[in-house]
Amino acid sequence: MQLVGIASAQRDSGVTSYPSTLSPNAVINPLQGNIFTVITSNVPDGFNVLVPVWSEQNGQDDLTWYLSANVGNGNHIATIDVSLHHVAGIYAVHVYLQDVAGNLYPVLASGIDVPASAISTKVTVNTPIMGLSSVTAADLSNMYVAHSPIAFPDYYVARGVSLGQFAQMYVEEAAAEGVRADIAFSQAMEETGFLKFGGDVQISQFNFAGLGATGGGVRGEDFTQYGDNANGIRMGIRAQIQHLKAYASTDPLNQACVDARFNYVSRGKAPTINGLSGTWAADTSYAPKIVTICNYI
What we know:
Mean pLDDT: 89
Helix content: 25-40%
Shape: elongated
CATH architecture of the largest domain: Orthogonal Bundle
Oligomer: single chain
Distance between the termini: 29 Å
Strand order of the largest sheet: 1-5-4-8-9
CATH class of the largest domain: Mainly Alpha
Strand content: 15-25%
């Protein structure tokens, strides 16, 4: 299955009625676990079949265009994993034919009811780093309180940042770059020992993922250059999330770059958590450790 991420406004501009010589038919099959398929038949040669899907909760914030697989004899199948959309409820499911010129011809406008039982929130090493994140600052804060071996550091509180504010920064900065906040926060907890630090990187640097720390006493990046205050803390979080985006995506940054090592990364080399093992960190169990913390959330 190939995901085609194209804004609906761009696509809708090319929609027109398909010629009467075409007689495609699309059927939405029932959910099997967290998967449903859309089968389009009588598709003429030379046409693609695109299936945009989104949950009606929060509008089209999770809109994804799926390119159906051509299985022969005029049949195309799109496989939709609703757990990637992260919410239950009514999903809109549309089907379009696409000709070689990019014109779209509507075939179906329907929907499917997705129960909460079909939405898996379990994170695995194969979970993409980029994507929607349904976690809130409260979710992150509660996980920290429940699983951290230490209380949230007074060092940050003295600089005007409580645990809730710290977690909210992760939610906001991750959303700005399209990175999953639960993954970014969990990585920071793994890197810092739940903000205990104690290695080459010091708590005073606001460096939450060991950026630039290569061992042997090399301390790495220091984000107090942006202020020994809440702004410096936020910039440290921003740099980590921008570095994650460099690993996971080839898309440009949406905010000014504060990650001094961003351009050193081979872009898109680690689209999933698993790709961080042996790359971001030499530890081959690095990804499973992050996953464990994610699933605490």
